[in-house]
Amino acid sequence: MDTLNKASNYAHETYDKLAGVASSTAETFADKREELMDAEKKLMKNSRRHVRDNPMTAMGIAASVGFLLGSLLRSR
After folding, report:
1. For residues 32 and 27, what is the distance between their CA atoms, to the nearest angstrom?
2. pLDDT band at 76, cuts 50/70/90?
3. 33-68, pLDDT tens digit by residue?
4. Rounded-to-integer distance, Cα 37 and Cα 69, Å
5. In this predicted model, which residue has the larger pLDDT, 35 or 4?
6. How far apart are CA 25 and CA 62, in angstroms?
7. Which of 43, 45, 58, 73 has a CB 3.0–4.6 Å from the CB of 51, allowing a cystine?
8. Gap between the Cα atoms of 74 and 23, Å rounded
9. How far apart are CA 12 and CA 19, in angstroms?
10. Residue 5: is its pLDDT beyond 80?
11. Do residues 50 and 58 make contact, with C-beta atoms less than 8 angstroms apart?
12. In this structure, what DSSP letter does residue 1 have?
C-alpha cells in the first residue's frame, strides 16, 4: 500500500507541475497576443497614413503587385 501512495503522490505532484507550466505558458501567449495586436494596429495606422499622404505611389505599388501576382498565377 505504501508503494501505491508514493505513486499517487508522485502523479499528483507531476500533475501540479504540469498545470503550473501550462498556466504560465497560457499567460505568456496572452501577453504576446496583446503585443501582436498592438503592433498590427500601429502598422495599419501607419499604412493608412502613408496611403493617404501618397495616393499615387500607393496605386502604383498596388498595380505592380497585382500585375506580378497575375503573371505568377497565370504561368502555373
Report:
1. 9
2. low
3. 999 999 999 999 999 999 999 999 999 999 999 999
4. 28
5. 35
6. 40
7. 58
8. 48
9. 10
10. yes
11. yes
12. -
